[in-house]
Amino acid sequence: MEELSNSEPAVDSTGAAEAPAKRARVSIACMRCKTRKNRCDGGKPKCANCIANDAECIYSAVRKMRGQGKSKKQAANSGGPSLQVRGPAGSASLELSILHHDSSPAQTRTSVDRSLMQENIKNGSAVFPEFLLPNVYGKNLTELRTSIGGEGFGDKITPLLPLAVSRRLIQNSFTDVMAEHQLLDLRSFVALLNAQYAVSSVDPGGNPARWALVNAVIALALRVKTAPGSEAELSDIPRAYYRNATTVIPDLILHDSSLLSIQALLAMAMFAQGTSDTQAFVTLSTNASRQLELLSLRRLLEGGGIDEEEEERQKQVSRVAHVLEKTAIEEYSTRSILRSN
C-alpha cells in the first residue's frame, strides 16, 4: 500500500519548489499475513490484520543486498537466483528456490548439467530435485495425483513424496510453515523425516505420532509453496497428506500421550486452521491441550524430572497449544452465535 500526500509542494528561500517527499511504501509483510497470503498494511507494532484477530505480529529481519546489482547483460549471462517450475502452459505450479552453480554463459537453465541437479542435502549444496524439472514435471504431477488416496474411511494411504523432494521442500519452506507457531525446530523435524522414510513411506511403521507429524508438516509445506493462482488446482495434494495424518488420530488420543503425539495433533490443527473445517480445527486443538494436561499430570505423579532440553520443548509446545486452543474457542463461540442467529 502507498500513501500519497495531498499537500502542495514546499518552496525554498529562492522560490524554487522542493522535490516532493518520497511516498511511504510497505517493504515487508508480517509473518502471519505472509503465511496466510493476506494483504498486510505493515503497521507497527502491529498490522491491522493482527490487531483485528488479536494475534501476535512478527516481522522478519529486512534482507540485506550483497553488493552492487548486475547489469542486464550480466543478468542474462548468469541467470536469476530463483526458478518457478511450471508444467505445460496454463498448468499449476510449485515454487522452489534454486541457487545456480558456476557455469558457462552459453549454458541455459534447461541444459544445466544433470550432475548439478543431484540431491546433496548433507553437505549443504544448493540443488534442484529431478522430480520437478520442467521436462518431467507434468508427468510426475499426474502420477502423484494417481497415487492420492480417497477421502472415505478405509481408502488407501497416499505414499510420501520421494525423499529428495521432501527434504528440499522442507528446507525451503520450514521457516514459513513455523512462522506463526514455532512447534519444533528444523533439525528435530529432519531427524523425524529421515526416521520415517527409513521405516516406511506408505504406513506409520509402528510410530503413529511420527507418521502424523511428518505428513501434517509436509501438507503445510506444500500449501505454503504452492504458486499464487494455483491453490485451487493443487489443493488435493496437500490435503492428501493431511488425510494421511488424520488416519492415526485414534491412536494419538486413546494411547498414552507423548510430546510427539501432541506435536502431531497441533500440526494437524495448524493445517485445519487454514481450511473451512472449523470443527476439525476445534477438535484437534482442544484434544492437543487435553493430552498436554494428561502428560504433565503423569510426569508429576511418576516423579523424576526431565532434562533441560525436553523441558524447553514442552514449554514450546505448551505455548502453541495455548494459542491454538484460545483461537479455537473464540472461533467456535463466534460460529455458535452466528448459527443461533
UniProtKB/TrEMBL annotation:
InterPro entries: TF_fung (IPR050815), XnlR_reg_dom (IPR007219), Zn2-C6_fun-type_DNA-bd_sf (IPR036864), Zn2Cys6_DnaBD (IPR001138). Residues 68-87 are annotated as: Disordered. PANTHER family: ZN(II)2CYS6 TRANSCRIPTION FACTOR (EUROFUNG), ZN(II)2CYS6 TRANSCRIPTION FACTOR (EUROFUNG)-RELATED. Pfam families: Fungal_trans (PF04082), Zn_clus (PF00172). GO terms for biological process: DNA-templated transcription. Residues 29-59 form the Zn(2)-C6 fungal-type domain. GO terms for cellular component: nucleus. Keywords: Metal-binding, Nucleus, Transcription, Transcription regulation. Transmembrane segments: none annotated. It is found in: Nucleus. The keyword Transcription regulation applies. Its main location: nucleus. PROSITE patterns: ZN2_CY6_FUNGAL_1, ZN2_CY6_FUNGAL_2. GO terms for molecular function: DNA binding; DNA-binding transcription factor activity, RNA polymerase II-specific; zinc ion binding. This is Zn(2)-C6 fungal-type domain-containing protein.
